Amino acid sequence: MVRQLYPFFKMLAIIICLAIPVFSQAESLDDLYAKARDLAFDGKRQEAKTLCATILERNPNYHDARLLLGRLHLWDWEYESARAELTRVVTLKPAYADARDALIDVELWSEHNQEALQLCEAGLQLDANNKIFYYKKAKALKYLKREKEAIESVKIALQLEPEYREARILLKDLQESQKAYWVKAEYSYDYFDKNLDPWQQLSVSVSRQTKIGSMIGRVNHAKRFNDHATQFEIDSYPRLRQGTTAYWNVGVSSSYAFPKFRFGAEVYQKLSDGFDSSIGVRYLHFTGANIMIYTGSIGKYHGNYLFQFHPFITPSSIGSSVSGNFSVRRYLENADNYFTVSVGLGSSPDERYNALELIRLKSQKLGVDWRKAVGAGLIVEGYFGLSNQQLKYGESRRNYTFSFAMAKRF
User: Fold this and answer.
1) What is the pLDDT of residues 356-371, one digit of tens each?
2) What's the predicted TM-score (pTM) here?
3) What percentage of the chain reaches a pLDDT higher than 90?
4) Is 9 exposed, middle or buried (0-12, 13-18, 19+ CB in 10 A)?
5) The 3-state secondary structure of 59-89, one letter per residue
6) How far apart (Å, rounded) are the C-alpha atoms in residues 141 and 102?
């Protein structure tokens, strides 16, 4: 009997021996994936990527590892690599909501808003009760300037989950953006440790949101150089096309404390991978002097941060002056809540000085400003700045600037 069963036991032993490595490999892949996740959340992203690649070499269909790898590429702003990995997962498993969610983030972060919208809509066809897809659909619609549709989408997300905090913040932001008017009052005070009496300025502006962009009218009243001065300005930010915005400004004054006439123009362009840039000019006419300032900017969005550099070049008959300003802004909840630190070096492009000082005056500056939405469409802003200004004959003076503003949408 035993001899008759021997071939059966032999075959069973062979099967067991062949199966053991398979089960061992599956277990080891799970262990590697758990380790990769721990590394990723500890900030060791390169090591986590290496482990994910090892897992996928052994099992290309280990979708969780490929999803994690896609997220890691996204966190490092490697959008093409992230898109390739996540698209593969979504193609093989269309109903894998986490993978689709990650791919939507890739498109939103890289400003491919139409593609993000299409991914959200396809996801909702598979799962009509997915609150995240409704929320991110609303974000894509917002960026596409389709605010009314965005409001409807985010409201559905809140019906599915009333305590969805991000959706509540987005809804509030969208509702505020529908208010056409904005009124702002700002007071600033400059103290100098020598040569000049304190300066004061009060500005009141009214903004109107239109289909092509915003229009702003502003009145500035200042006390400088023992003179009370008033300046009138008009600003506009027309949208030229998707991703391209223009700026122009005209200002007039009859006082010595302001330029008699000023004009500004700039074009802003969104670039790929979270970058944007601009190029523009400022023209200032003082009594007996005309000054042209060439400027621009290069900026980079990284998560909730915006890093930006602004150069200023001012040609003149006594030699061109150059200055630069670098700032880091941290957004807290939305565009109405942020904190900024800036540093500047070089000649001052500040039109509050007269024509000669504007070219010759060298300064090193440090500034901190913040903006906070406090409810019911009300926003408060504050600024503190310190500059060390180098005067002729080796002299210098310090300038302390304080300002406070309140704005209201309606």
Assistant:
1) 555 556 788 999 999 9
2) 0.73
3) 60
4) exposed
5) CCCCHHHHHHHHHHHHHCCCHHHHHHHHHHH
6) 18
pLDDT beyond 70 at 306: yes
For residue 382, give the amino acid letter.
Answer: G
Comparing C-alpha atoms, which of 243, 299, 302, 306 is closest to residue 275? Answer: 299
Give me the residues paired with residue 294 across strands: 281, 313
- Residue 382's SS3 state is strand
Q: In the predicted model, what is the mean pLDDT of residues 18-33? A: 62
Place of tokens 């000082």: 357
**Type of residue at 200:** Q
Residue count of the chain, please give it. Answer: 410
DSSP bridge pairs for 239: 245
Q: Check residues 53 and 28 and name the one with the higher pLDDT.
A: 53
3-class SS of residue 194: coil
| Partners of residue 366 on adjacent β-strands | 343, 386
Q: Look up residue 90 and give its two tokens.
A: 């979504």
349 pLDDT tier (thresholds 50, 70, 90): low
3-class secondary-structure state, position 228:
strand
- The mean pLDDT value for 29-35 works out to 92
Tokens 């930010």, located at residue: 237
Question: Looking at this protein, which amino acid is placed at residue 358?
Answer: L
Q: Is 226 left (phi over 0), alpha (psi -120 to 50) or beta?
A: left
